[in-house]
Design brief:
The protein is of the alpha+beta class. Strands 1, 2, 3, 4, 5, 6, 7, 8, 9, 10 and 11 form an eleven-stranded antiparallel beta sheet that branches. A hairpin with a 5-residue loop joins strand 2 and strand 3. It is globular and about 55 Å long. It starts with 6 loop residues before the first strand and ends with a strand.
Length: 172
């Protein structure tokens, strides 16, 4: 997916006069640099579940890890459709961009991409986030974690500041 630019469309109903659509390159940079993301899943009984987590943007997808018995992993086993969000850090109305990705969480189990992702995790978050790859999982301190990737099916950018805007990116 490198070099791929989805179609960006400004929603005039939710954007101020003078606003422009945000280029995907700006959203991708935010997704790459963010330290914290929010994952929204649905429990088997239909109730929502939201949790913060760390992750890595690589190969056109956001990747995250979780223990097999954690709530988010159990939710994903029942229904893999998710929403991931991140944004600029100060939560002010005067500036920033929030990005929302909708997609399907899919397990990553192949050793080659897992090793690449483990190196990316450690490069981004430091040596305390070192993972070995074993049996299709990340392993740290004797604990195994499942690794998932979410490729955007639909994404939105909510701009704040001089002009409030809502951009929708379409993926084919």
């Amino acid at each position: 997916m490198s070099g791929f630019e989805p179609f960006a469309e400004l929603d005039p109903d939710y954007s101020e006069a003078g606003a422009t659509a945000c280029p995907w390159s700006v959203a991708r940079e935010l997704l790459t640099g963010a330290e914290v993301y929010w994952l929204s899943t649905v429990r088997p009984d239909g109730r929502p579940h939201v949790t913060p987590l760390i992750g890595v943007w690589a190969d056109g997808a956001l990747h995250f890890a979780t223990g097999a018995e954690e709530r988010k992993a159990r939710n994903l086993a029942a229904g893999p459709e998710v929403v991931l969000t991140t944004g600029t850090g100060d939560n002010s109305m005067s500036k920033g961009l929030d990005v929302v990705i909708e997609g399907r969480a899919e397990r990553v189990t192949d050793e080659v991409p897992l090793n690449r992702l483990a190196a990316a995790w450690e490069a981004k978050y430091g040596p305390q986030w070192h993972f070995d790859v074993r049996d299709g999982t990340f392993v740290n301190g004797g604990h195994a974690a499942l690794v998932f990737q979410v490729r955007p099916r639909k994404a939105f950018g909510f701009g704040r500041g001089a002009h409030f805007s809502q951009t929708r990116w379409r993926f084919s």
